[in-house]
Design a protein that fits this description.
This protein is α+β, with helices and mostly antiparallel strands. A hairpin with a 4-residue loop joins strand 3 and strand 4. It is globular.
Length: 142
Protein backbone atom coordinates (compact mmCIF):
# COMPACT_ATOMS: atom_id res chain seq x y z
CA UNK A 1 0.00 0.00 0.00
CA UNK A 2 2.88 2.32 0.87
CA UNK A 3 4.42 1.75 -2.60
CA UNK A 4 1.07 2.48 -4.25
CA UNK A 5 0.63 5.79 -2.35
CA UNK A 6 4.19 6.83 -3.20
CA UNK A 7 3.62 6.07 -6.90
CA UNK A 8 0.32 7.98 -6.80
CA UNK A 9 2.04 10.99 -5.19
CA UNK A 10 4.76 11.00 -7.88
CA UNK A 11 2.13 10.73 -10.60
CA UNK A 12 0.17 13.65 -9.09
CA UNK A 13 3.33 15.77 -8.90
CA UNK A 14 4.18 15.07 -12.56
CA UNK A 15 0.61 15.91 -13.62
CA UNK A 16 0.67 19.18 -11.66
CA UNK A 17 3.99 20.11 -13.23
CA UNK A 18 2.62 19.36 -16.69
CA UNK A 19 -0.46 21.55 -16.11
CA UNK A 20 1.77 24.36 -14.87
CA UNK A 21 3.83 24.36 -18.07
CA UNK A 22 0.74 24.16 -20.26
CA UNK A 23 -0.75 27.29 -18.69
CA UNK A 24 2.30 29.51 -19.21
CA UNK A 25 2.37 31.98 -22.08
CA UNK A 26 5.40 32.48 -24.27
CA UNK A 27 4.87 36.26 -24.22
CA UNK A 28 4.11 36.51 -27.96
CA UNK A 29 0.34 36.68 -27.67
CA UNK A 30 -0.74 39.65 -29.78
CA UNK A 31 -4.39 38.75 -29.45
CA UNK A 32 -5.45 42.12 -28.12
CA UNK A 33 -5.51 44.20 -24.98
CA UNK A 34 -1.81 44.94 -25.27
CA UNK A 35 -0.41 41.42 -24.75
CA UNK A 36 3.07 41.38 -26.26
CA UNK A 37 3.04 45.09 -27.14
CA UNK A 38 6.37 46.82 -27.76
CA UNK A 39 4.94 50.14 -26.54
CA UNK A 40 1.69 51.54 -25.18
CA UNK A 41 0.42 55.13 -25.18
CA UNK A 42 -2.67 56.31 -23.30
CA UNK A 43 -5.02 59.24 -23.80
CA UNK A 44 -7.08 59.95 -20.68
CA UNK A 45 -10.61 61.27 -21.07
CA UNK A 46 -13.20 62.25 -18.46
CA UNK A 47 -15.04 58.94 -18.95
CA UNK A 48 -12.11 56.58 -19.49
CA UNK A 49 -9.03 55.95 -21.60
CA UNK A 50 -7.89 55.09 -25.08
CA UNK A 51 -4.67 53.10 -25.18
CA UNK A 52 -2.75 52.48 -28.39
CA UNK A 53 -0.59 49.35 -28.41
CA UNK A 54 2.23 48.94 -30.96
CA UNK A 55 3.20 45.35 -31.81
CA UNK A 56 6.34 43.76 -33.30
CA UNK A 57 4.48 42.77 -36.48
CA UNK A 58 4.06 46.49 -37.31
CA UNK A 59 0.40 46.60 -36.36
CA UNK A 60 -1.27 48.71 -33.72
CA UNK A 61 -4.67 48.80 -32.04
CA UNK A 62 -6.55 51.33 -29.94
CA UNK A 63 -8.46 49.91 -26.97
CA UNK A 64 -11.13 52.18 -25.52
CA UNK A 65 -12.11 51.64 -21.88
CA UNK A 66 -15.04 53.26 -20.04
CA UNK A 67 -15.04 51.89 -16.46
CA UNK A 68 -18.27 53.65 -15.44
CA UNK A 69 -20.07 51.77 -18.22
CA UNK A 70 -18.11 48.51 -17.78
CA UNK A 71 -17.10 48.91 -21.44
CA UNK A 72 -13.92 47.89 -23.30
CA UNK A 73 -13.64 47.75 -27.07
CA UNK A 74 -11.09 47.72 -29.87
CA UNK A 75 -11.80 51.07 -31.49
CA UNK A 76 -9.21 51.34 -34.27
CA UNK A 77 -6.51 49.15 -35.81
CA UNK A 78 -3.79 49.88 -38.31
CA UNK A 79 -0.19 49.54 -39.37
CA UNK A 80 2.98 51.49 -38.67
CA UNK A 81 6.63 51.59 -39.63
CA UNK A 82 9.29 53.40 -37.62
CA UNK A 83 11.13 55.72 -40.00
CA UNK A 84 13.55 57.18 -37.43
CA UNK A 85 14.26 56.97 -33.72
CA UNK A 86 12.13 54.87 -31.39
CA UNK A 87 8.91 54.94 -29.37
CA UNK A 88 10.24 57.67 -27.08
CA UNK A 89 11.66 60.07 -29.67
CA UNK A 90 11.03 59.17 -33.25
CA UNK A 91 8.87 59.26 -36.34
CA UNK A 92 6.70 56.58 -37.78
CA UNK A 93 4.43 56.16 -40.78
CA UNK A 94 0.97 55.47 -39.41
CA UNK A 95 -2.19 54.19 -41.09
CA UNK A 96 -5.70 53.41 -39.85
CA UNK A 97 -7.16 50.36 -41.60
CA UNK A 98 -10.10 49.38 -39.39
CA UNK A 99 -12.69 51.07 -37.16
CA UNK A 100 -14.95 48.93 -34.95
CA UNK A 101 -14.37 45.90 -37.17
CA UNK A 102 -15.05 47.70 -40.46
CA UNK A 103 -12.19 47.97 -42.97
CA UNK A 104 -11.29 51.53 -43.88
CA UNK A 105 -8.86 53.33 -46.14
CA UNK A 106 -7.46 56.32 -44.29
CA UNK A 107 -4.34 57.94 -45.68
CA UNK A 108 -0.85 57.33 -44.34
CA UNK A 109 0.50 60.06 -42.05
CA UNK A 110 3.86 60.70 -40.43
CA UNK A 111 3.46 60.63 -36.65
CA UNK A 112 6.08 62.31 -34.44
CA UNK A 113 6.83 61.11 -30.92
CA UNK A 114 8.66 63.55 -28.63
CA UNK A 115 9.63 62.64 -25.07
CA UNK A 116 7.13 59.77 -25.08
CA UNK A 117 4.19 61.91 -26.24
CA UNK A 118 2.30 62.17 -29.52
CA UNK A 119 -0.87 63.92 -30.69
CA UNK A 120 -3.50 62.09 -32.74
CA UNK A 121 -7.12 62.52 -33.73
CA UNK A 122 -8.99 60.02 -35.93
CA UNK A 123 -12.12 61.31 -37.67
CA UNK A 124 -14.74 59.10 -39.28
CA UNK A 125 -16.58 61.74 -41.35
CA UNK A 126 -14.80 62.65 -43.44
CA UNK A 127 -12.26 59.86 -42.93
CA UNK A 128 -9.01 61.52 -41.93
CA UNK A 129 -6.19 61.31 -39.40
CA UNK A 130 -4.77 64.45 -37.77
CA UNK A 131 -1.36 64.21 -36.11
CA UNK A 132 1.31 66.34 -34.46
CA UNK A 133 -1.06 69.14 -33.43
CA UNK A 134 -1.18 69.86 -29.66
CA UNK A 135 -4.93 70.53 -29.98
CA UNK A 136 -5.40 66.82 -30.91
CA UNK A 137 -5.70 64.08 -28.27
CA UNK A 138 -2.48 63.74 -26.25
CA UNK A 139 -1.17 60.16 -25.93
CA UNK A 140 1.48 59.53 -23.25
CA UNK A 141 3.84 56.54 -23.21
CA UNK A 142 3.17 54.05 -20.41
Amino acid sequence: MKKFLKALAVLAAVAALGFGFASCSNGNDDGGSGSGALAAFTYTQSYGTETIYFYADNTWECIETKPAFNYTSTDYKGTYAITSGDFTNGKLDFTVVEHNGTKSGWEKVSLEIKDGVFYLQVWDTPARVDVNDPSDDKYVKQ
